[in-house]
Amino acid sequence: MPNLGASEILAILVIALVVFGPRNLPELGKNVGHALREFRRTTGRVTDELRAELKAPPPPPPPPRQGP
Question: Under 8 Å CB-to-CB from 25, ≥6 apart: which residues?
Protein backbone atom coordinates (compact mmCIF):
# COMPACT_ATOMS: atom_id res chain seq x y z
CA MET A 1 0.00 0.00 0.00
CA PRO A 2 1.53 3.33 -1.02
CA ASN A 3 2.30 5.93 1.60
CA LEU A 4 0.48 9.25 1.35
CA GLY A 5 2.56 12.37 1.60
CA ALA A 6 1.48 15.84 2.67
CA SER A 7 0.71 16.95 -0.89
CA GLU A 8 -1.52 13.94 -1.56
CA ILE A 9 -3.46 14.43 1.67
CA LEU A 10 -3.88 18.14 0.89
CA ALA A 11 -5.19 17.29 -2.59
CA ILE A 12 -7.70 14.81 -1.14
CA LEU A 13 -8.92 17.39 1.37
CA VAL A 14 -9.31 20.07 -1.31
CA ILE A 15 -11.29 17.69 -3.54
CA ALA A 16 -13.50 16.69 -0.59
CA LEU A 17 -14.09 20.36 0.21
CA VAL A 18 -15.10 21.09 -3.38
CA VAL A 19 -17.34 18.02 -3.69
CA PHE A 20 -19.11 18.16 -0.32
CA GLY A 21 -18.88 21.84 0.51
CA PRO A 22 -17.68 23.53 3.69
CA ARG A 23 -20.98 23.07 5.55
CA ASN A 24 -21.29 19.32 5.01
CA LEU A 25 -17.63 18.44 5.55
CA PRO A 26 -17.68 18.46 9.40
CA GLU A 27 -20.80 16.29 9.45
CA LEU A 28 -19.24 13.91 6.93
CA GLY A 29 -16.10 13.64 9.07
CA LYS A 30 -18.19 12.94 12.16
CA ASN A 31 -20.11 10.17 10.36
CA VAL A 32 -16.90 8.62 9.06
CA GLY A 33 -15.48 8.67 12.59
CA HIS A 34 -18.54 6.91 13.98
CA ALA A 35 -18.42 4.31 11.21
CA LEU A 36 -14.71 3.60 11.81
CA ARG A 37 -15.26 3.32 15.55
CA GLU A 38 -18.12 0.84 15.06
CA PHE A 39 -16.05 -1.15 12.53
CA ARG A 40 -13.15 -1.43 14.98
CA ARG A 41 -15.49 -2.43 17.80
CA THR A 42 -17.11 -5.13 15.66
CA THR A 43 -13.82 -6.52 14.35
CA GLY A 44 -12.53 -6.61 17.93
CA ARG A 45 -15.54 -8.65 19.03
CA VAL A 46 -15.11 -11.09 16.13
CA THR A 47 -11.41 -11.44 16.87
CA ASP A 48 -12.11 -12.10 20.56
CA GLU A 49 -14.71 -14.74 19.68
CA LEU A 50 -12.34 -16.47 17.26
CA ARG A 51 -9.53 -16.51 19.81
CA ALA A 52 -11.87 -17.92 22.47
CA GLU A 53 -13.03 -20.66 20.10
CA LEU A 54 -9.48 -21.57 19.16
CA LYS A 55 -8.46 -21.81 22.83
CA ALA A 56 -11.49 -23.88 23.85
CA PRO A 57 -10.89 -27.61 24.27
CA PRO A 58 -12.38 -29.80 21.56
CA PRO A 59 -15.73 -31.43 22.36
CA PRO A 60 -15.60 -35.00 23.65
CA PRO A 61 -16.11 -37.71 21.05
CA PRO A 62 -19.58 -39.28 20.90
CA PRO A 63 -20.04 -42.55 22.78
CA PRO A 64 -19.73 -45.71 20.68
CA ARG A 65 -22.97 -47.07 19.29
CA GLN A 66 -24.30 -50.33 20.65
CA GLY A 67 -25.25 -53.11 18.24
CA PRO A 68 -28.89 -53.98 17.45
Answer: 16, 17
Separation between Cα atoms, residue 26 and residue 20, nearest integer Å: 10
pLDDT by residue (tens digit) across 6-22? 999 899 889 988 988 88
Distance CA 38, CA 65 (A): 48
- Decide: pTM greater than 0.70: no
| C-beta separation of 12 from 20 below 8 A | no
Q: Cα separation of 18 and 10, whole Å?
A: 12
Integer Cα distance of 52 and 35 in angstroms: 26
